[in-house]
Specification:
mainly alpha, Lysozyme, 10 helices, elongated
Length: about 220
Amino acid sequence: MIPSRPHLPTARRTLRRRSRRTAWRKLASWRPDLRWLTGRSRRAQRNRFLILAGAGLVLLVAVIVSLAELSAREHHWRVLAVRYAYATGLPPGLVAGVIRAESAGRPSAVSRSGARGLMQLMPATAEEVARKHGIRYSGPDDLFRPDLNVRLGTLYLAWLRKRFRDDPWLYIAAYNAGPGAIERLRLRNPELSSEELIRQCAPAETRAYVPTVLRYWREETR
């Protein structure tokens, strides 16, 4: 018997279903070649290695240069601290401690109040000290010169030390808060020791500043 002709709509639906199943099977079995993305090809691996190695080398060089600059800068201000400490009769450890507390050894440091340089001198104070000692001083930007800053700062600190009779709690506090403010505190609280006076009556910044300088001073003399 000759088979009857299949019903056309049914045949079309069957073909469409088969086509969809075939398409889904192909899609499900497809795996993209991600070697270009993951770097699994030899060329990609080599290129990626060269890029990472180059970036690492640049970073290493930058770190070495930065450390060298920091080391050179610290060496420079420590030499200045010793030189001008001896010139003014101050302990070198004290001068180094003040520099660490004031600017962390940064010659370009500027405070919110306008103090500048390694020892954070106010321009008016620097001008007065320079005039008193016959030192050339052209203006506030001169305080970014490490040599001049430490020279003027140690002269001022030595003057405070003498004014407050070599009492570190008082003359270090005066370096931070000003001699007038500390003298007024002293007059109002004669019953307190110098340490008690600063810890109990001085402004918050000065209360923190003096112990910090004293701690750095001890560290510098070990």
